């Protein structure tokens, strides 16, 4: 006869146990505010950089290029995390506020 260890077996009684738990899926306010501010400052930097580079307003071409690159560096993570927060708020499958790293 084979030895069967019943200490770790799953029975029907184990499957019927109902546990109540609360899913904490609250929006992280500081992280979303940071993402939105990065997005806004990135757009402002890109637009300002384009105007400076095309000599529409004061400055030279190098300053415009600098502001455009700085705007892109701010825009990319701002857009990425704002998009995650928006999709998590709307309840799209695969998106959660847990995907936004803490500040």
From TrEMBL:
Write one Pfam family the protein is assigned to: TMEM_230_134
Which GO cellular component terms, listed alphabetically, does the Swiss-Prot or TrEMBL entry include?
Answer: autophagosome; early endosome; endomembrane system; Golgi apparatus; late endosome; membrane; recycling endosome
Q: What is its main location?
A: cytoplasm
Q: Is Secreted one of the keywords UniProt gives this record?
A: no
Keywords, sorted A to Z: Cytoplasmic vesicle, Endosome, Golgi apparatus, Membrane, Synapse, Transmembrane, Transmembrane helix
**Listed transmembrane segments:** 32-53, 65-89
Q: What InterPro entries is this protein classified in?
A: TMEM230, TMEM_230/134
Q: What is this protein called?
A: Transmembrane protein 230
What membrane topology is annotated for this entry?
Multi-pass membrane protein
Q: Name the family.
A: Belongs to the TMEM134/TMEM230 family.
* Biological role stated in the UniProt entry: Involved in trafficking and recycling of synaptic vesicles.
- From the Swiss-Prot or TrEMBL record, state where the protein is found: Cytoplasmic vesicle, Autophagosome; Cytoplasmic vesicle, Secretory vesicle, Synaptic vesicle; Early endosome; Golgi apparatus, trans-Golgi network
């Amino acid at each position: 006869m084979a030895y069967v260890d019943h200490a770790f077996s799953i029975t029907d009684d184990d499957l019927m146990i109902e546990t109540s738990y609360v899913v904490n899926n609250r929006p992280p306010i500081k992280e979303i505010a940071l993402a939105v501010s990065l997005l806004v400052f990135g757009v402002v930097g890109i637009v300002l950089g384009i105007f400076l580079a095309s000599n529409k307003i004061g400055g030279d071409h190098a300053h415009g290029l600098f502001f455009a690159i700085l705007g892109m560096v701010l825009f990319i993570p701002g857009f990425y995390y704002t998009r995650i927060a928006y999709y998590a708020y709307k309840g799209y499958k695969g998106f959660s506020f847990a995907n936004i790293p803490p500040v």
